[in-house]
Amino acid sequence: MSTSAEPVATLTAESLLGTLAAAKKRRDWEAIARHAAEVPEQLAGAWVQVADEIGFALGQLRRTDEAAALFERVYVVAPSRRIASALAYVYYDALLGRRTRQAERGGQAAAAGRDREADRKAFARWMGEALRLEPRSIKDLYRLGVFEAQVESRHDKPALRAFVAAIESYRALPADERQWRGDLRKPYVRSLYAGARSALRLSDLDRARRLSFDCIREDEQTDHVAPVHKLYLAGKICAALGRSADAERAYRKALAAKGPPERDYVHAALAALALATGRAEDAERWIEANVPPHRRKPVLWRLVGDVKVARGRGREALLAYQNALRKDRAGRHLTLTAMGALELAAGNAQKAAEHFRQANDFRRRKYLSEHLPALDGLATALWALGRDRDAADARAAAEGLREGRAGRGRPGPGGLASGRAVEPASADDAPAEDEAAEQG
To answer: How many C-beta neighbours within 10 Å does residue 407 have?
Structure first.
């Protein structure tokens, strides 16, 4: 007796969309990504939406090239600002090096082995396309600002332009649209925060203050930016404006505010403020009572050294500076300059000259620029050694650099102690605000 085979169910885009929707609700990106091989080469109808959903899941898993390839296929048949934005986001996410929980479980290293220059170009291409299609896209303008400020090593002028454009775009929306487009409020608030930070770096202090206070006021109920970060940034801006009492109040509020539990950078800022206002003993107490040695980052060890100098403890200062050098990859020129000043004050001109030269050499290698305090110190040390011609060369280089900086506005935040700039922990020493992945 013959039996007929059971009919094989035909996979349709419509049926698959239901499966994907259920997995997306669970945030099960792996389950969605497993269907990538089922997407036909030629997209049409509901398969376009299927490819869109799978591309998003691949992006969440940091499978950048696969996500981008799928989104590009979608863009060919259904070009839109949203898909161009999704493509830009795939590369933006890879450049920021953010790990998702799914990527960590899968053992995929964030951005490991990727060609960052190729990712930069791809981001620029698709971000340009997204903004061509919708020049006032708030999410895209915000991401462009983050790209300039964080990926491109503090390109704060273009970053600030992008953040201001995002803020203005949001504020230009009708009130009812702002109400139903609640997803736009998050990039708006974060543009206020990030714009204030970029303005601070640019010494545009009035704008920084205005944006910072707007962020605190507008985000009071939602906390799209952690309160500790908002208050810390407000404190830095007040300090830069010379409003020390306001800065201290903001920092103290930051200590008690909601947000990630790490607070060492706030204690460092309070110590730096105390030192800048002539209260070296208070500065020392803020650090010693709150940040044990094993938790001190190089910037904090450097501050410890500055505090010891202010208290007349040269040997302890030198040990602190040596600790700062051990793991410092960014601010070695600042520490070496401080060590040079310490040796010069002690009459050790030869050691001072070596430290100043090392400081300037590091600055050249790392940042492709000269370090003015190191050049000034080097000139003084060389004069003390009787090397008049070398000293004159160093002084000429310092004067040339000083003239080039003329007219750039008031200096950024930080106090003065013993004739040296005090560099407290920067706003970027606070844990970064993580942006939830959003498509378009």
So the answer is: 6
Q: How many residues does the chain have?
A: 440
The closest alpha carbon to 244, from 210, 282, 218, 207, belongs to 282
> With 90 as the cut, is the pLDDT of residue 98 above it?
no
Collapsed DSSP state (helix, strand, coil) of residue 417: strand
> Residue 24's CB: how many other CB atoms inside 10 A?
16
Report the amino acid identity of residue 180.
W
3-state secondary structure of 416: strand
What sections of 34-155 are H helices per DSSP? Answer: 46-60, 64-77, 81-96, 101-105, 116-133, 138-146
How far is 350 from 340, CA to CA, in rounded Å?
9
> What percent of the chain is modeled with pLDDT above 90?
81
Dihedral angle computed from the Cα positions of residues 150, 153, 157 and 163, in that order, rounded to the nearest 10 degrees: -10
Can you say how many angstroms the Cα of residue 175 is from the centroid of all Cα atoms in its chain?
A: 31
* Torsion angle (degrees, nearest 10) of CA 295, 297, 299, 304: 40
Helices (H), 219-331: 227-240, 244-256, 264-276, 280-290, 298-310, 314-326
What are the distances in angstroms from CA 340 to CA 43, 312, 351, 379, 424? 66, 16, 7, 12, 19
Residue-wise burial string across 161-176, b where 16 or more C-beta atoms lie within 10 A, e elsewhere: bbbbbbbebbeeeeee
- Label residue 354 left, alpha or beta by phi (over 0 means left) and psi (-120 to 50 means alpha): alpha
Residues sharing a CB contact under 8 Å with residue 261, sequence separation 6 or more, in sequence order: none
The residue-averaged pLDDT of 76-103 equals 82
CB 378 within 8 A of CB 171: no
Q: Do residues 193 and 177 touch, judged by C-beta distance below 8 A?
A: no
Q: Hunting for tokens 């990106």 — which residue is that?
A: 29
Say what the pLDDT of residue 235 is: 98
Identify the residue whose tokens are 């793991």. Answer: 327
Structure tokens at 380: 């003084």
Give the ranges where 134-184 is alpha helix by DSSP (H): 138-146, 156-172, 175-180
Among candidate residues 325, 334, 405, 410, the one with its CA nearest the CA of residue 373: 334
pTM: predicted TM-score of the whole model, two decimal places: 0.84
